[in-house]
Amino acid sequence: METFDYVIIGSGSAGSVLANRLSEDAGTTVCVLEAGPRDWHPYIHLPAGFIKTFHMKSINWAYQQEPGPYTGGRSIYAPRGKTLGGSSSINGHIYNRGQRQDFNTWAQMGNRGWGYADILPYFKRMERRVGEGEDTFRGRDGNLTVTTMDWKDPLCEAFMEGAVSLGIPKNPDYNGAIQEGVSYCQRTIEKGLRMSAAKAFLHPARKRPNVHVRTHAHATNIIFEGKRAVGVRYLKGGRGGTPVEVRAGKEVILCGGTYNSPQLLQLSGVGSPELLKSHGIEVRHALSGVGEGLQDHYAPRSVARVKNIRTINELRQGWHLWVEALKWATTRRGLLSLSPTMVYCFWHSGETTESSDLQLTFTPASYKEGVQGQLEDEPGMTVASWQQRPESRGYVRIRSADPFAAPIIQTNYLTAELDRRVVVAGMKLARRLLKSAPLAPYYAYEDFPGEKVQSDEELLGAATERGTTTFHPGCTCRMGPADSGWAVVDDQLRVHGLQNLRVVDASIMPRMISANLNASTMMIAEKASDMIRGKTPMEAVKLAS
Ligand SMILES: Cc1cc2nc3c(=O)[nH]c(=O)nc-3n(C[C@H](O)[C@H](O)[C@H](O)COP(=O)(O)OP(=O)(O)OC[C@H]3O[C@@H](n4cnc5c(N)ncnc54)[C@H](O)[C@@H]3O)c2cc1C
User: Fold this and answer.
1) 3-state secondary structure labels for all residues of 427-494
2) Gap between the Cα atoms of 156 and 433, Å rounded
3) 5: three-class secondary structure by DSSP
4) Ligand 1 environment, Cβ below 6 A
């Protein structure tokens, strides 16, 4: 049986960063197991290809969530990347770190070394920021290129002026001193191509002889000797494939993401004894927090019909698309280099809110049923709005002992009263933004939720009927103290009560942050790599309060 120092399960945002950092030590061997294929498909690399990869089952787990109390009986689609780079290979390329208080809250929950000043050096270390940004906050020579949207659009400009007219200031860098304000998005795009975690971290590492990446390697369980993780069993080729075992001389590191990491722990006998026994799985280690605490951002997408100008809906049709394809081929710019959203706006739902609790995005396009899958034919523009720090929590639980069965995903969106209130406030702000004076020359009428929808109750009803995930699930293997009753890993990301096993991915977030999750997931892996290598943590940044 082959033995490596580290066996990493999952080559996504976190797994790619870890594979790179751990293999910097030439004497260390690293094996990465990835259930999906190589990231060769052109749609992964073409930024606008997200609209295709969104449903592409060969590189996407394409999960369905359970209907929740506030989803109007709907089962909401939950895409997840299943290829090198994981979800960073199919995501919307937006780069957004979150707010200081997000990470200070993590520290207050009992996690030493995770306050904002402590984690900021890791955000800086991994990025190569091209564009606006103060050196206190931004890195300039890391692996991950971060650029600003280079598409200047009259509708986007008018939206931003509209925000300013409502008292929302422009912010040159929402990843800098403060997040609040409006601006074009920052993106993980370089020269018109996606900068996935695989491209930034894994592929450079693969050139080293001590890195071994296995694709089509679906991990089915972690192998233990007593309480010590000693290896991983996987099926080469997926379901019905050849069983293979690899040994980890030092550690097994689980980077399967928010849905699959708790699933694999449960399949391996780590979790709530009642759940495991109900599926006939022997309890290796009782840990009731595994899979519990799931959080995500829930967004209704307000749509207005547009007049007097072309939107992306028309630009991707007929001969326009050929022009855009030529433009991308020759300049790497234009429609095919775009992200699903173009402008970001952070604001607060009420006067007493200490920092912004609403995130709004603007796109000069509209999607069928409001979800990023298929563009509509008639001109449209969309403002998605969501509560940044929801309180509702759900869970991920195995459906059966079959490692190929999709887990049960119940996010319980909007079950907390605060969440309902803030989401309604977001829809009201979205309406004011779309109706602002600078957008008036282009605004035809409100399509969703529609003028008939006015009271808070009606707005909540509309959110229930058509809100969707923003694809930011986290918090199913939460980091926290052993005696908390909910934590799965400690602040070194070691699984409580077990040896040689860590979880490093978006699932360890103890609480949802005010951001999309790719940037912070990679930061988590950057920081974890120093812990695993026994290095002194980077010095905290000195910040003016
Ligand atoms: C459609 C979409 C749009 C998004 N847009 C944005 C955005 O614009 N900006 C942003 O910041 N975030 C965005 N996100 C979220 C962000 O990409 C994720 O939060 C982040 O990539 C999660 O990283 P991770 O390492 O936790 O998991 P992942 O990147 O999902 O990696 C998990 C990896 O583990 C592999 N794996 C799982 N189980 C097994 C197994 N049993 N055996 C072997 N391998 C396994 C998976 O195939 C996958 O490659 C988006 C996500 C999606 C899906």
Assistant:
1) HHHHHHHHCCHHHCCCEEEEEECCCCCCCHHHHHHHHHHHCEECCCCECCCCECCHHHCCCCECCCCE
2) 12
3) strand
4) 9-15, 33-36, 54, 79-82, 86-88, 90-94, 96, 217-219, 255-258, 260, 264, 471-472, 505-506, 516-519, 521
Which token pair is 18?
Answer: 């870890």
Instruction: Please tell me the distance between residue 62's alpha carbon and the centre of ligand 1 in angstroms.
Output: 12
Is 89 buried (19+), middle (13-18) or exposed (0-12) by CB count in 10 A? Answer: buried
Nearest CA to ligand 1 atom 31: 12
Q: How far apart are CA 137 and CA 123, in angstroms?
A: 8
Q: Which protein residue has the closest C-alpha to ligand 1 atom 18?
A: 518
Specify the ligand 1 atom closest to the Cα of 341: 8
Give, for 87, the enclosing helix (H) or strand (E).
none
In 3D space, the residue among 174, 154, 7 whose CA is nearest the CA of residue 94 turns out to be: 174
Q: How far lies 303's CA from each of 44, 71, 368, 430, in Å? A: 27, 19, 10, 9
The alpha carbon of 12 and the centre of ligand 1 are apart by a number of angstroms equal to: 6
Q: What is the pLDDT of residues 287-342, one digit of tens each?
A: 999 999 999 999 999 999 999 998 988 877 778 888 888 888 888 888 888 888 99
Torsion of CA 108, 251, 195, 299, to 10 degrees: -40
143 is written with which tokens?
């692996």
- The pLDDT score that the predictor gives to residue 372 is 65
Q: For a pocket test of ligand 1, which of 175, 518, 523, 526 has the largest count of ligand atoms closer than 8 A to its C-beta?
A: 518
* Annotation marks residue 203 as catalytic: no
- Convert the pLDDT of each residue in 459-509 to its tens digit: 999 999 999 999 999 999 999 999 999 999 999 999 999 999 999 999 999
- Dist. CA 319 → ligand 1 center (Å): 35
Among candidate residues 384, 386, 300, 295, the one with its CA nearest the CA of residue 339: 384
- Judge contact between 293 and 395, C-beta under 8 A: yes
Cβ distance 37 to 215 under 8 Å? yes
From 97, 234, 367, 517, the mutation candidate for ligand 1 (largest count of ligand atoms within 8 A of CB) is 517
Spacing, Cα 162 to ligand 1 middle (Å): 34
Specify the pLDDT at position 344: 97
Tokens of 368: 């069928």
CA of 495 to the centre of ligand 1 (A): 21
Residues of the chain predicted below pLDDT 50: none
Q: Which two tokens stand for residue 54?
A: 């969104």
Task: Check residue 371 and give its pLDDT.
Answer: 65
Point out the ligand 1 atom lying closest to the alpha carbon of residue 61.
47
Ligand 1: atom nearest CA of 93 is 8
Q: How far apart are CA 454 and CA 450, in angstroms?
A: 9
